[in-house]
Design brief:
Belongs to the NodA family. This protein is α+β, with helices and mostly antiparallel strands. The chain is built from three helices and eight strands; from the N terminus they run βαβββαβαβββ. The chain has a six-stranded mixed barrel.
Length: 193
């Protein structure tokens, strides 16, 4: 039987300390399955890694937190263009539900109306190249851009920046996808979400 997920959107200031503790444990368990170094950001009840989200889209089931998307409105720079986006990050699905279609496939349908309410031209996110097939299945609404490097504040040493070769995900919201600015480098001007 397929797990029933109840999705809800929370503004960051709606979350109580117990909510952050539950999310921190969720991230430690989920990201820890990928590599132990991933859990270092989520000590105690810290429920974010880099930039703190503005709002969160959280899926719950009978076992607790099942999936999570964080959202933060920000300007990113592409060449000479400052582009307003709703960055989507802190994406995670509980290990027992991975490959079940719970994450991007059902989450994107919940996420798009929330992003539209933010009145931004585009949703924006990044993933590792290994996740390409996974996100391609998610939605025809996503445009995947490759060959773009992304510069961010280093998560481990905030005095440095790092440049990564990532897949860029663009969700057209108030503008058409062909209006996404071209460029080979995206500057987050801060840490990833």
């Amino acid at each position: 039987m397929k797990t029933q997920i109840q999705w809800k959107t929370y503004w960051e200031n709606q979350l109580e300390p117990g909510d952050h503790a539950e999310l921190a444990e969720f991230f430690r368990n989920t990201y820890g399955a990928v590599g132990a170094w991933n859990v270092k950001h989520f000590k105690g009840s810290r429920s974010w890694a880099g930039a703190r989200p503005e709002l969160r889209i959280i899926g719950h089931d009978e076992r607790g937190v099942a999936a999570h998307f964080g959202v933060l409105r920000r300007f990113i720079r592409l060449g000479a263009i400052d582009q307003l986006v709703a960055e989507v990050g802190l994406y995670a699905v509980r290990p027992d539900l991975q490959r079940s279609g719970i994450g991007y496939q059902s989450g994107i349908n919940v996420m798009i109306p929330t992003l539209l309410d933010l009145k931004v031209p585009f949703g924006f996110g990044t993933v590792r190249h290994e996740l390409r097939e996974h996100v391609e299945k998610a939605s025809a609404a996503l445009m995947i851009v490759s060959g773009v490097r992304v510069r961010s504040t280093d998560l481990w040493d905030k005095s440095k920046t790092c440049v990564e070769d990532l897949l860029v995900l663009v969700i057209p919201l108030e503008r058409a996808v062909d209006e996404w600015p071209a460029g080979e480098l995206i500057d987050r001007n801060g840490p990833e979400l």
